[in-house]
Each structure stands twice: as structure tokens, then as C-alpha cells.
């Protein structure tokens, strides 16, 4: 199939740079590498067209190469604006993968890319945010019958798809990786959360020790962010809508209060909800001068910056990804990264080694979906535990570690 390449990435210099990035990431992803070898031998995805809508970087490019090795025809449309690496796009396009992805800042062009990808007629989807499924329903419902199912990695994707399922509008089965056991340890605690703090501290020069850090959301990601905030010497306040999670936060030693109350005392407010408008207009007038806001969830819009801009008398970019809004009373509110989610901006790429297990699970989940879609209902499903267990075994093998077998009793 002829690769579709945006003019800005049809460049041999970009291609070579992208291949170097992909090669480096591949060397750090032994689990995905073993699955790639298995896929190349067994061709479990032969004859299938798969559309991937997820941030395009070196690690996710390795996922694409794995699926391609398994016989799939790939169409990659990338993720949110500024989450796509043109060098990676050029390298994948040169290897025969259909690319409908490039760096830009226009939401309209992002939607146009989704529609273009959909119109290629996929059998399986990788839909990080859940937007791809919604776009198919609204723009090309005639193609729904040919789609067997898909996979999403994120909490935001889970929330969107769950709403569709609740309304009986989910058109095919979708596997969600967010609650997979391995995600808590290797995705959030080891990869997502360290990159949150690494990005923020390097970009903002914010000193955490002794400050009041408000964390909205005490799911797995919020919990891991809390652990690191406390380790850095912060006083942590948690805002939650789920009473069970709020009790858990309290029993973990955090102060728990409503977000409007927490907005009065917070020096740093971090959202980890995956929900739009977690922080909005009703909170801004309550905040301290110099407060810093960060969003970490997959949904761009956890912090409603449109409402912040509406009440600001001036706006400026302090440095890349750090914005300053001045209110009429002279107070300043700083927002870190108004477009892509906070983690993965200053650090360039997700750590390939720590992303290895997550993307390996995604590859196996796509294989599972293809083999079982006709026996699954149109519902949101967890990744089978056996797949997570298989990934863990491959990881242990790559580490040269051995474990005992449970005794039969």
C-alpha cells in the first residue's frame, strides 16, 4: 500500500533520524521484541487492517513494527496535537506503513486525520482516547460492521467507552488496559508518575518541599503521584468524588477536602481524573497568587483553560509549555502545558524500557480480540489476566530472573 505522507515528513533526513530513535527504543524493549519474533513466525494478524490513534513516538513506533511483523496492514493517525514526532512518522512511512500523522496545533486537522484513517476500512482499532470510536459513529457509521473491536490504554478512553456502553451505543467490543495489574506497577508508578514530576520540575523550577500539593483524583495514577509528592516533602491534599477512594486517601495519611476548599490553600494543583473540566471557572477566583496548575490525565481539558483565559486581563508564555494568566486583581495563575498532557512533553518520549510491558500487552490484546471477537459482546472488557501473566513471564525471562512454581495442594 502506498504510504500517505504529509509534505513536512517526506524528508530523508527526518527518516534517518527517526530510524535511529526507533532502533534505540527497540533495544530497550525486550518483551515487545519477543512478541515481534513470535508474530513474525505465526502471522496472527495477516490480512487485517489496523488503525492506531495514539501518541506517535519511538516506543509506539516499535508497537507498530510489531503489528506489521504479524502481518497487519497499519494506518497510524497519531494522537493529540504536539504528541506526534515527524521523524518517527517519516521512518515508518519509509517502511511502508500508512501515516496520517504529523505535528500540528489545530484540533480541526486532528479530526480530519481521524476521518481519513477511518475511511481506510479497518478491522481493528487502537484508540487511546476513545475519540476514534466516536468519530466512526458520527462520521462513517457505514463502516462499523467491518470493525471487529479494539483496544484502549487510557483512563480517558475507558470513561468515554463506558459511557457508550451504558447508553447501549458501543458498536463493538473494546479491551481496556487501564486496570490491568501490570499497569499499576510499570506504567504509573515507574513511568508515568516519574515523568510527571521530571517534566514539571525541570520546566517550572517549582520547589515541592514544604508546599501544599492538591491532587484531584485518587485512582492508581493519582495515588502514585501522591506517593512521590510526599517523598518530595509536600503536604498533600486529595480531592475526590468517589467516597471509597476518598476514605482510602484519608487512611493513607492525606488530607481530604472538596476541590473548591483545596483551591484556597494549594500551591500546586494536579489533576489525574481523565475527566473534562475538573478545574474550571468556579475555582480560579479562589486560588493563591502564583499557583501552578498541571494536568496529567489523558483527556486534554481536565483543566478548563478557556474559562481561565476569559477572566484573565493578560496572558504570556513564560517558557515552552508554561503559561501565565494574570487576573484583574493582579494575581497570577500558571498553567503547565495547555495542549498535550503534562507527562511526555519536556522528556521528549516515554521511557521505552518502562513502556515495554504496556505495549506488549496491547499487542497481545489485539491478537486476542481478533481471535475471540465473534464470541464477545459489545462491551468494555478487561484484558484477560492470562495475557498480563504471560507478559510478566517474558519480562522475568528478559531479566534473567526465575520464580518458583506454586505447589499443588
Automatic annotation (TrEMBL):
Pfam families from the UniProt entry: AdoHcyase, AdoHcyase_NAD
Domain S-adenosyl-L-homocysteine hydrolase NAD binding: 195-354
Alphabetized InterPro entries for the sequence: Adenosylhomocyst_ase-like_sf (IPR042172), Adenosylhomocysteinase-like (IPR000043), Ado_hCys_hydrolase_NAD-bd (IPR015878), NAD(P)-bd_dom_sf (IPR036291)
Keyword set includes NADP: no
Requisite cofactors: NAD(+)
SMART domains associated with the record: AdoHcyase, AdoHcyase_NAD
Recorded superkingdom: Bacteria
Gene3D superfamilies: Adenosylhomocysteinase-like, NAD(P)-binding Rossmann-like Domain
Keywords attached to this entry: NAD, One-carbon metabolism
A Gene Ontology biological process term: one-carbon metabolic process
Entry's Gene Ontology cellular component terms: cytosol
KW NAD (keyword) present: yes
Family as reported in the entry's similarity comment: Belongs to the adenosylhomocysteinase family.
Record NCBIfam families: PRK05476.2-3
PANTHER family: ADENOSYLHOMOCYSTEINASE
Name of this protein: Adenosylhomocysteinase
Taxonomic source organism: Paenibacillus elgii
Amino acid at each position: 500500500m502506498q504510504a500517505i505522507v504529509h509534505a513536512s515528513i517526506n524528508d530523508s533526513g527526518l527518516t534517518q533520524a527517526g530510524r535511529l530513535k526507533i532502533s534505540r527504543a527497540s533495544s530497550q524493549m525486550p518483551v515487545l521484541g519477543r512478541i515481534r519474533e513470535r508474530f513474525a513466525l505465526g502471522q496472527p494478524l495477516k490480512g487485517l487492517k489496523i488503525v492506531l490513534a495514539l501518541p506517535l513516538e519511538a516506543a509506539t513506533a516499535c508497537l507498530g513494527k510489531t503489528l506489521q511483523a504479524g502481518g497487519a496492514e497499519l494506518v497510524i493517525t497519531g494522537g493529540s496535537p504536539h504528541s506526534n514526532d515527524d521523524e518517527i512518522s517519516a521512518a515508518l512511512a519509509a517502511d511502508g506503513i500508512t501515516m496520517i500523522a504529523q505535528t500540528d496545533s489545530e484540533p480541526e486537522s486532528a479530526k480530519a486525520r481521524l476521518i481519513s484513517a477511518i475511511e481506510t476500512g479497518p478491522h481493528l482499532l487502537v484508540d487511546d482516547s476513545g475519540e476514534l470510536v466516536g468519530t466512526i459513529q458520527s462520521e462513517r457509521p457505514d463502516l462499523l460492521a467491518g470493525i471487529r473491536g479494539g483496544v484502549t490504554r487510557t483512563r480517558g478512553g475507558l470513561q468515554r467507552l463506558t459511557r457508550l456502553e451504558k447508553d447501549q451505543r458501543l458498536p463493538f467490543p473494546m479491551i481496556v488496559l487501564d486496570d490491568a495489574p501490570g499497569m499499576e506497577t510499570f506504567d504509573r508508578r515507574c513511568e508515568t508518575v516519574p515523568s510527571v514530576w521530571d517534566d514539571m520540575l525541570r520546566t517550572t523550577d517549582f520547589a515541592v518541599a514544604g508546599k501544599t500539593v492538591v491532587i484531584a483524583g485518587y485512582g492508581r495514577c493519582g495515588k502514585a503521584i501522591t506517593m512521590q509528592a510526599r517523598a518530595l516533602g509536600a503536604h498533600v491534599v486529595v480531592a475526590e468524588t468517589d467516597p471509597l477512594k476518598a476514605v482510602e486517601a484519608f487512611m493513607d495519611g492525606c488530607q481530604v477536602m472538596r476541590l473548591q476548599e483545596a483551591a484556597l490553600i494549594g500551591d500546586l494543583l494536579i489533576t489525574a481524573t481523565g475527566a473534562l473540566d475538573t478545574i474550571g471557572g468556579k475555582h480560579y477566583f479562589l486560588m493563591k497568587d502564583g499557583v501552578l496548575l498541571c494536568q496529567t490525565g489523558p483527556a486534554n481539558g481536565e483543566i478548563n483553560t478557556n474559562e481561565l483565559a476569559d477572566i484573565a486581563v493578560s496572558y504570556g508564555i513564560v517558557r515552552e509549555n508554561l503559561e501565565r494568566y494574570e487576573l484583574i486583581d493582579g494575581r497570577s495563575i500558571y498553567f503547565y502545558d495547555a495542549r498535550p498532557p503534562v507527562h511526555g512533553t519536556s522528556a521528549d518520549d516515554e521511557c521505552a524500557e518502562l513502556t515495554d510491558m504496556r505495549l506488549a500487552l496491547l499487542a497481545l490484546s489485539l491478537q486476542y480480540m481478533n481471535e475471540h471477537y465473534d464470541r464477545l459482546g459489545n462491551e468494555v472488557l478487561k484484558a484477560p489476566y492470562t495475557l498480563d501473566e504471560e507478559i510478566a513471564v517474558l519480562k522475568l525471562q528478559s531479566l534473567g530472573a526465575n520464580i518458583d512454581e506454586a505447589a499443588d495442594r
